[in-house]
Backbone:
């Protein structure tokens, strides 16, 4: 099942930070990793990913460096201390949010029964 | 088979060869103005497309299909282009903290620029206005209240510059001047109070008891300062003069209010920052901010430009009579005698009323700025101004016109203003009044000393006694200094000099004074003289 864009919109940056908290990666690799880890639930397209990466880089949550790969230059992203802090905050926020949503949905279920 | 993606038509691309992502990359990056960033994004996206393409080939797709899929995986390309150009916008991202800092910098510059950049007043005013407006515009994204405050600040800025441009049209009418001043005071109060209200609302959730921000004190002080300034203008329009306290009070309260406001804004910024207030201002605001500020700047420049245009117009009227000016017949005669005593042709004296000189204010920027100073002068009771022309070369048709304002300041430490290019000394006719010494270092051309002194001359014209009057006891303000070409025809105006000031040790200045006075070979054509009436 694919998640609707609207639902995923608020958590895209969190997901990107989460992936980069594990390893330095380049754009294509990030997309593939997210797809694999979410078992194809999150399919982030390039039009979404790169503006997020560039914005996070400008906010100094990420840094980048270039490497040679397959005969061309490749840009890798690395999470910074600020990025880790942001990730931790967003993650906490997300857990509170999802838990609250879960409780509400659970309550709705009981009412329906 | 050629690869022709669906977006080719809108790009005007009819045909693309295989593996050629250059057109799509060019399109995607076309909104990024910074060439270095553009190249970086281009290379990154190229690597991405190639990864996709190679993956496509690896799973057995044809070259065309692999390329097609790679390009289509980008999704809505127009949207991506827009997002990339927004992220890599020319204009730096504005945060609440930066916006507040811009606002504070604008107020600081606007409040204290007289002392910092004397002679560059229009430029400083414009710069301060741009800083303030940029800050206000960015802050306006924080809510409706701040939007209103921004609108008021824009209106007040336009008013300020329009007043400059319109001075020649209403300068003679005291009633209109008062009306316009009151309108300006009201606009300023509106802008100030709206801004304070919006900021107070913004920081209210983060206020703690031990962090009082003294909004009320700022409001009261600004209200008193503005009301006092308006009342003062009304008073001098009716009576023509006033006491020195009347001018000092609104100026002192006004400056104190601004200092309090600056402290308040700095503390407010700190409170919001520490409270982890949402400091980012939406991205789309940046371009709008730039356009709005540019538009306002253009409007301000237009108003200043209009003022300059009028100021450069040749004088159409014949030389004025003494009755047209504030000068009395006795004073006029006195000046003529003074000129005669320096071997100047007294007929060269050209007086003009204040409104006439207003037409040239743009050519003497330090004069324009000194509104407070002019107020001080006008209430001091010693205010007199006049112009006279003296030859600046041996040719008869070229003159330098000097206009002087004489002011005995009641304030200790008041600045002494002078034009730095003169080293001349002209003693006064009776040998007892004040003279001004300006001395240049002959090698560096740097001005060394300036100070008013009382000098007594002996019967042969030599120096009998030099008496120190104090560096802050007398102020000479050279309000206008421009050239006249052919007094009977069109006048060509040229701006002259900036203003600097200093005080000097008495002993050194006295030595200079004596030396200059005794130097008979010193040029004696033009200079600055303090006349005491």
Residues:
């Amino acid at each position: 099942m694919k998640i609707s864009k609207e639902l995923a919109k608020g958590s895209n940056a969190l997901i990107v930070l989460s992936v980069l908290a594990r390893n330095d990666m380049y754009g294509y690799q990030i997309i593939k990793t997210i797809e694999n880890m979410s078992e194809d639930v999150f399919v982030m397209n390039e039009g979404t990913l790169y503006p997020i990466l560039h914005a996070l880089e400008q906010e100094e949550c990420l840094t980048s460096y270039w490497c040679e790969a397959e005969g061309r230059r490749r840009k890798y992203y690395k999470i910074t201390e600020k990025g880790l802090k942001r990730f931790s905050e967003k993650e906490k926020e997300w857990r509170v949010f999802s838990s609250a949503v879960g409780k509400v949905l659970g309550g709705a279920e009981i009412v329906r029964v | 088979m050629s690869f022709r993606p669906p977006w080719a038509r809108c790009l005007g691309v009819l045909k693309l060869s295989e593996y050629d992502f250059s057109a799509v990359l060019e399109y995607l990056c076309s909104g990024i103005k910074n060439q270095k960033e553009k190249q970086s994004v281009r290379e990154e996206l190229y690597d991405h497309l190639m990864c996709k393409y190679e993956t496509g080939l690896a799973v057995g797709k044809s070259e065309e299909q692999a390329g097609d899929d790679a390009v289509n995986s980008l999704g809505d390309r127009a949207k991506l282009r827009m997002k990339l150009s927004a992220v890599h916008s020319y204009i730096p991202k504005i945060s609440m903290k930066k916006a507040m800092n811009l606002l504070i910098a604008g107020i600081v510059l606007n409040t204290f620029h007289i002392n910092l950049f004397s002679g560059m007043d229009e430029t400083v005013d414009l710069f301060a206005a741009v800083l303030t407006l940029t800050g206000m515009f960015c802050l306006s994204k924080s809510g409706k209240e701040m939007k209103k405050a921004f609108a008021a600040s824009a209106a007040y800025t336009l008013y300020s510059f329009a007043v400059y441009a319109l001075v020649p049209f209403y300068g003679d009418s005291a009633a209109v001047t008062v009306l316009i001043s009151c309108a300006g005071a009201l606009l300023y109060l509106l802008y100030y109070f709206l801004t304070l209200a919006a900021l107070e609302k913004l920081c209210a959730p983060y206020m703690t008891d031990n962090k009082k921000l003294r909004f009320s004190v700022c409001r009261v002080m600004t209200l008193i300062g503005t009301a006092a300034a308006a009342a003062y203008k009304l008073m001098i329009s009716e009576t023509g003069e006033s006491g020195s306290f009347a001018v000092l009070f609104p100026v002192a309260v006004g400056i104190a209010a601004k200092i309090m406001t600056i402290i308040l804004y700095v503390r407010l910024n700190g409170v919001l920052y520490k409270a982890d207030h949402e400091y980012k201002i939406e991205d789309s605001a940046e371009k709008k901010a730039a356009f709005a500020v540019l538009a306002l700047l253009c409007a301000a420049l237009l108003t200043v430009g209009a003022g300059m245009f009028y100021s450069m117009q040749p004088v159409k009227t014949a030389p004025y009579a003494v009755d047209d000016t504030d000068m009395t017949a006795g004073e006029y005669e006195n000046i003529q005698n003074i000129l005669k005593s320096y071997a100047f042709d007294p007929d060269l004296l050209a007086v003009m009323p204040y409104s006439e000189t207003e037409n040239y204010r743009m050519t003497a920027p330090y004069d324009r700025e000194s509104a407070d100073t002019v107020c001080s002068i006008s209430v001091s009771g010693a205010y007199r101004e006049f112009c006279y022309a003296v030859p600046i070369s041996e040719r008869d048709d070229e003159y330098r016109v000097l206009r002087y304002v004489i002011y005995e300041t009641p304030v200790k430490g008041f600045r002494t203003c002078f034009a730095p290019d003169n080293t001349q000394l002209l003693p006064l006719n009776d040998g007892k009044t004040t003279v001004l010494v300006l001395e240049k270092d002959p090698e560096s051309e740097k001005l060394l000393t300036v100070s008013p002194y009382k000098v007594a001359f002996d019967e042969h014209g030599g120096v009998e006694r030099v008496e120190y009057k104090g560096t802050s006891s007398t102020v000479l303000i050279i309000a206008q200094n421009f050239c006249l070409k052919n007094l009977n025809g069109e006048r060509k105006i040229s701006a002259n000099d900036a203003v600097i000031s200093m005080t000097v040790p008495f002993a050194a200045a006295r030595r200079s004074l004596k030396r200059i006075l005794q130097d008979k070979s010193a040029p004696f054509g033009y200079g600055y003289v303090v006349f005491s009436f």
Observations:
- The beta strands of chain A are 25-26, 62-69, 72-79.
- The first strand of chain A starts at residue 25 and ends at 26.
- Confidence is low (pLDDT under 50) at residues 109-113 of chain A.
- Residues 81-112 of chain A form the longest helix (32 residues).
